[in-house]
Amino acid sequence: MSHRGRYDDYDEHELDYRGRGRHDETQQQPAKPSFQNQPRHEDEAHVSNFSRTGSSLGPSSTGYTASHRGGGFDSYPTPSARITELDDRGREVRPSYERATDSGTATATASGLPPRSYGMGYESQNRQLASVEGRSEGRTENYGPPSGTDRIPGHRRPPPPPTPAPSTVSASVIKDFEEMKLTSYYVRPGYGTIGRPLSVLANFFAVRSKGRAKIIHHYDVEIDPVVKTLNQKKPKGLLRAVWEQVSLEQSGDWAEAFAAAAYDGRKNCFTPLPFPISRDFVQTFTTAIAPDNIVQRPGRRDESSSDDEYRRFRVTIKHVAEIDLERVMEFCRADKQAPHGEEECLTGLMATNVLMRDVPSKRYAQVGATGNRFFTLEGAVSIPQGAIVCRGFMQSFRCSNSGLPLLNLDIGFSAFLASGPALEVVAKILGRDRGGGAGPRSGPWGGYTGGPNRQDISELSPREIGIIKNKLRGAKFTVTHRPSTRLHTIMSITAQSAEKIIFTMDGKNGEGEQRITIPDYYRQFYSATVTKPRLPCVQYGKKAFIPIEFVRLADWNSLPPTKLTADQTAAMIKEAAMRPTDRANAVLKWRQELDHSSQAKIHAWGLQVNTNMVQLQARVLPAPKVLYANNVDARVDKGMWNLRGKQFFRPGRTPLVAWAVISFDKYTDRDTIQSYVTYLCDTLIAHGVPVVNRQPSCIGPVDPRREENIKGALQEAARDSYIAGKKAVDAGRVNPAWKCAPQLICVVLPGKDAWLYETIKRASFTDLKGPVPTQCMQAAKIRGSKGIEAYTGNLVMKIQNKLGGLTHQIPLSELPGMVKGKTMLLGGDLGHPPIKAGYADAPTVACTIATYTPDCDAYSAQIRLQEGRGEIIVELSSMIEEHLKIFHRKNGEYPGRILIFRDGLSEGQYAAALQYEHHAVITACRRLQRDYRPRILLCVCAKRHNTRFFGRAVDCDGSGNLPAGLVVDRSVTNPYAFDFFLQAHAGRVGTARPTHYICLLDELAISPDQLQQLVHSLCYAFARCTRSVSLVPVCYIADLVCQKARLIVNDPGAGTSFAPSESSAGDRNTNTRASQAGYSRAGSGGQSTTRGGRRLDVMQVQNIMARNPELADVVSLVCWV
Q1: pTM of the prediction?
Q2: Confidence class of residue 11 from pLDDT cuts 50, 70 and 90?
Q3: If residue 32 lies in a helix (H) or strand (E), which one and from where to where?
Q4: Burial environment of residue 510 by CB neighbours within 10 A (0 to 12, 13 to 18, 19 or more)
């Protein structure tokens, strides 16, 4: 989850270094070090995990097949303090929820499709798409050029007719679309030439083959226990240990083949030396490993273990296919006019990525679902509240248009929980270590109090239990009350203390049932004294509880961004924000440490990795004109300009009159607020924002530690705002037709804690008679004089935007491909719920932002809720239809050109987005007017990649970054696809990350220079800052809207787990706030779908927004962000 727009309404353009540590929502899984007995991530499609940003494995004309079947294994369980049942052998029976096995299957089969020269193809002939309910159009009848035009010169063949899109689509249809594989590319029409050329380095290393590239043999590997046990699990570390043990036990030809083989830790093995078996023969090996998964050479293993039979495994190997790496080399040379052999290239990339990860997976901790990120504890840095930041790297083998495949190598930073005794870590989390420390406080009134003595860790308040529950859920740990190395997983933290948890168990020697507390149980059965009985217990099974003092947290427990506090985020950013020169040196250091030339397996595969970064030609595009009122040119310099002395381009419809100010900081009283409000009003007027009410109601200081205080203050502010507006209307100071709705509530925050910010945003949207825009301000900023001019200038731009005005404009003459009054820009994004307990049925927020004015400088928003975590916007057709109606109402006609910029897509979803969402646009157009067919351009914007560029000192700015406007469309881009990297913004701290733009469809016949200049100019149009941003504004705003909408539909308080007070035979008393959130109920007037017996109101956010007549107007619809 991004932190943009949080705390003081900061944006990425203000803190450009956000996310430099790559701690993004794709990394939501706990760390999995090699050779550790840990449960695997369910449904992990390891076959396609060959690159963090690489495409999934597609169909192959070679008959390539790979499968992933269920099954699992876990080691023989050691006795524990579990309150559970035993099977007929006297062994532990785990809870049913732990016995679920992975039944996912990932299979790639031959498609037989010939390569396409132009357009985009899809592997769909073996998949029958579900029919659409409630639609009568059938397939699109006319899929040719836009109506009323001849075929556009140079126009490429459009996609094949897709299946009609419904307004509500079943999950199976969406799944079918998302499983479609890209089998051809929209071919690049050429390369750009505009701009100042310069030479740069990229964090890629060329990979060559010694002579002709080798044939790689792919084998399917099955590893199963000889003696199957209940609740079988096969953690990745365990499977690697078994594979390594089998490898050490081989000799002769088998030993040579194993020595050159790369194993992915699941089911696939790749080797250039075939195993000495026939193609149809299945070879089986049997081996045993030590209880701690330590690989031992033959003859050295201790055979006396009593549970040795449960550590024996059967390994079966079967030949699957041959992969020719020469196909990768040929694809990168791109010496054919049409894309050729892309599927063979994908399989080669997958196999080589497994090879590249073989050695790192043994030396470092392999973190994340994609398997290409590795970290080490060496040089780890402690950050506040019980966390550490570890350094690492990622690497990915990719095709390129440089003539050779490249190895992308980049550094990484990730936050983890500190390891050690849980009590010590909890003390750090709560700020109770060493006399308090930096705990999770929010200024004067944001602290979490746990009692009179903050250093006392013998008892926790309910709020503190909620904090540590959120932090520790999912963490791995070992127990200390008995000898054991087995890893367990924290499910929850009990609300009751250990001494209050009572359960019933069978007595000894037939004495019948007895009631016993947790401390008594551990004292009787383990001779372990619970010294802190008032502390809660850790729940690590359905019926398993252990006092927190007997828990030791393991290494590599990941902390995703959603669990980081403001202090931790700031410390993380500070550690991860490396200057470009330092980052380049760190990449080269990792390249030297990996030393690919000394890796025997890479040598056996006949590959050589260059020691130097790729050098390539880039260009710096000229900045566009930025106009303020009276067409004053701002004179852009290095991606920035100055606001001083300029008036905003266009004011809002109504002057600022109905507003109020609240202080949640006890040191900011009403006199201080009024003093700053006077300065704020002067600044607003100086920039052309009319202010009628210069003395708004000032409320507070208010204690924000109780949520009802926050709601009460906001309700009072909204009421005072309405009264001020009503008085202004009655006095004739504003237009009598104005509806007096509250325009703005300014809120003074004591600190930067997310919980207070999110509570304010949520309450201002849902707990008032109608949603009211809020503007958060930092108390420390408005009380001091240092930097107050720049800070207030930033605020007035946001206030101007929230009043429906326009700060500045980019003239259409600077936007190639756009026609005045005929063009609509549209951006789309999705906001997924967090991956944690209580959110299984939480919806995904889908948002589209579209322009509707002739100059494309005002936006309307459409928000829908949809099921699951898919990347396709299900309701896109109805959303587009509403945007087109607004455009027609404002311009008298529909747009002839629609330029769609899509965020939130991975490479594996490009085909689905093109086919489904492109057709959704066509369907919306034809519902409005049968013969209406605009020209469409569809471009994907990708930020989650690991490409960085470095330049010479003479070419860089003061931060060491390359200048704003840097564009790269050669060498590191795709051999065929129409893509480019654009760094439109000037880096401030750390190393700037360019955005990767991939054009999937172009019916405008736009040239590379035009598209690159268009995107670059649009990045200067973001209304809330005086600098260019890294992403086109329609996508940027869509992302901000999704963030705020998630606060409404995803209840952040999942509640606290309550342990049973009696035997576990009854139901647990569990807080169900998450299940009672708004997404579980359907609105009366909106569309809805049913999931798990509950109804989802897809129009929930849109209906709430309509309750405020100011926000219901398209001018101000996105002002809530």
Answers
A1: 0.80
A2: very low
A3: strand 32-33
A4: exposed
